[in-house]
Amino acid sequence: MRRLIRAGYADGVVVTRYSAISPCVEEYEEQLDLIDQHLGFIALMRPEVTEVR
Known about the structure:
By secondary structure, the chain is α+β, with helices and mostly antiparallel strands. It has two helices and two strands; from the N terminus they run αβαβ. A two-stranded parallel sheet has the order 1-2.
């Protein structure tokens, strides 16, 4: 998806849960940062709260 955002073919991605991007919270946050660098977005259909470890 990042490739499509970088190329201008997509503005972002909508997912049902953050785990659709990665089941690991740290990896999900890394993906958020990478997509944000290309002015894209990840939107969750339903907000989720995760525990801080």
